[in-house]
Structure formats: C-alpha cells, structure tokens
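Quick illustration, no need to memorize.
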Amino acid sequence: MNVHLRIGDNRTFSLKHAVLVYQDGNRAFATLHDVKCRPNESPYLCAGQSVTTRFLETLAKGLGASVEAEVLPEHVLARTPELIAWWSGSQLRLMFFGAGNAETKKLNGKMFPHPALVFMIRGRELFVRALAEGRRPTATTRLKNAPYWNTDAHGQVCLGSMRVPEEKSVGSLSGWENAYFASEFTHPSGAVRLTSHPGGFLGLWSSLAGRKQSFPVKFLADSRQTLQEFVQRRGEG
C-alpha cells in the first residue's frame, strides 16, 4: 500500500520516515525509522536510529520554521522562529474608536499622548504591553497593561478586521504597529484592569484628547509580568 499526501495542486508528498518519541516522566528521546511499503500491504517501519540535529534542522526548515539572517535594529528585543518582540518610545498617536459608544464619538480621530510600548508577534497573533519608562527595557523590566480596548489580560490583541502585514519580519514591524493604531478600539477584552485612572478607560483618554503632554504613567496598571516572562510565556504557549 502506497501512502501519499497531496497539498495543493502540484505537490505530492510520500511517506518516507517516522519519528517515535519515548518518554519517562520529564525525560524523552526519539528514534528515526525509514518507512517501507509493499504492494497491497500496510507500510512497515525499519530499524530505528537516533534522531540527529541535522535531521531536526532539515525538518524545521521543511515545516517553515527557518529564519532568514537579519541584522536586528536596537528596538528589537527578542527573536525566535515563532516570535518577534520590539519596543516603541512614547509619542503622540491618532486613535480611532467604534461608533457604538456615545462618549467615544467625541474622542474618535483625535491625537493623544501614548506611553512607551512593547509589541510582540507570535505566529499571526499580536500582543502589547506598556512601559513605565521611555527607554529600552531589560529582561527584568516590569511591564504594565496596555491601556487600550481590544487587548486582554495577557496582552493579546483582538485583531478583528485589522489589516496586519502578511509577513513576520523585522522589516514589517512598523506595519504591525501602525495597523494596531489604525484600527478602531471598540470594546474591553475580558476582565483586565486597563488603567488605575479614577475615571477608568474613558476618563483617562478623555483627559488626554488633543494634548501634547507626556502620558501619565502613574495611571498604568501593573501586568505582574517582566519582559522575560512576557516573551517566554507566549513563546511556550
């Protein structure tokens, strides 16, 4: 019996190898086996051999997990095949809000001061945290919750109809950042404290509309997470 997998219209993949994983508690090892097929019979496994680093590299490349060599600019904080994290300094930005709330109609399309931010792309997901200081964070820097609707307690953004870049590379980071602020902030995402401002989310942004002052970082809520924990937790999840 021949075993084939067809993906798309012009590629046919044949079963050639199998990886068996053996585990005892937290310890594990793997063996690689050639797969042989006989006419009208089920495939069978040949004797195994230890999985090599070269094989894993080839497998990862075939699965699209390889990363092209890039010169990383100063604002990039972390880079793996699965994620890129970077930071952006405090600045004035436009904000847009959904039409479902009468109070946000008064704020829609105005300029606001914003805190320094940490962004992270993982797969096709976007995460955002805030910084209390406008400088490059270190691994132990404690992060703040991003004070924005559409962003949950983990910092994950509800992308909705947001037009994000197709690629995930250093060159696309500004596109992801711009897409976040070009979209409409429409709703709270779950039980998350977005700000310690006494007027809440709307009170905070109403007080900042059209102003050029620095963002009042005293109103940022603690995320209870360091930069190291932020990138590792999402990278492992």
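The two ends are 38 Å apart (CA to CA).
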